[in-house]
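Ligand: NAP. Inputs:
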Amino acid sequence: MRIGLMGFGTVGSGVAHILHHYREDIAKQTGGDVHIARVLVRTLERPRGTLLDDAVWTTNADDIVAHPDIDLVIEVMGGLEETRALIERALRAGKPVVTANKDVVARYGAQLCAIALEHGCDLFYEASVAGGIPIIRALAHSYASDRITRLCGIVNGTTNYMLTRMAADGASYEAVLKEAQALGYAEADPSADVCGWDAARKMAILSTLAFHAEVQLDDVATEGIDRVTQADIAYGAKLGYTVKLLGTAARVGQRVTVSVQPTMVHHAHPLASVHGVFNAVYVYSEAIGAAMYVGAGAGSLPTAASVVADVIAAVRHNRLGVSGKTWSRELPLRTLLPEEEVRGKYFYLLSVADRVGVLAQITDLFARIGVSLQSVLQQSPQLDGPVDVILITHETHRAAHAQCLEALERLDAVEHVKSVYQVLDA
Ligand code: NAP
Ligand code: HSE
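Predicted complex:
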């Protein structure tokens, strides 16, 4: 099996490492030798180590997607339109494709899977979500006999690494972002990580598989971690919560809702103990109940291991003559749960005037809208200054939460609403 590898950066070099070091094991599993025959890069000037022959390097994508000597294509170069077109060309030429590209899969996955099916070849994308965790196969195959009702996921390693370092060491946002970039976790444009778009792509992919619904990227209500402050982290900790960028997807009847937002996760919830670059997906299903899948969400070897596992699966399918028949299922049309019907608990950090009756006004406001409060914490006031008040609600509709927020912002005693978070309890 001659592989055309498109990209030789963090993930691509890891793929070459794994194919080289486990060559015999892989050959035993696939019944033949699997080796890299050609590698596409942007420039031939950069040193690339000694694992591969000089003859493999090219800057011309046709040497891979259109070349008869290439049997299978691995895409780990990133990018969107140009990359989608290359994947499509490879599939139309009958070459199975393995990709780690969540951008392409989230936007064009259904379309590319249909092309793969039509041409009798596989399109696999295990590494596109949660790096080294085999979550795509689990959702696609292991839940075939069950019904998934909800998913909660920490699916971006960069932001989890940043939030962990900010909480543990009080490190600054800018410093920890630089660290995550240096470690190879961040996207080429790290705003995809910190603004939540990378996590949104992954949640769209996961919820499409979990709910057999066509969840598109625009369906995912997305917020990043750029507004998370040290004060939020400290107040959260005081009340028993840790801040995580959480993807949440739920199925209510025949409708689905998917979001990505910074969330106060209670310390007793297993997701609160997922730190650093680790990712985790917490799956609730009718028969199995709750199950958590955890592991390295980014980085060279964990991601490359998922890519090579897909390669092995594709080679086996090829030998068995069943290529293109899995993961390419018909999806019903999506139906989104209306915004106002989504339920959740909320955390508010307010700066309020320190005078008699202010707390009563605030709690009265929540009571009038019909939102029940779980806890209220007031900080000791600074001399003559405003005081911080933290409120956590019981579960309520998002519409009621929006009403509370609007009313708080209009209340004289509230100088401003400093932060608002969704809350996940154990
Ligand atoms: P990277 O380190 O930036 O490497 C990209 C590689 O692709 C480089 O070798 C680059 O060539 C080549 N390349 C990029 N654009 C190209 C073009 N237009 N033509 C030819 N070659 C091109 O990226 P990465 O971190 O390995 O990520 C690759 C993909 O995996 C992305 O889709 C990413 O989202 C996904 N992913 C990454 C991780 C991770 O931990 N990094 C985890 C899961 C998924 P040069 O070397 O010549 O510049
Ligand atoms: N930038 C991504 C992350 C890479 O931090 O999770 C893995 O998809």
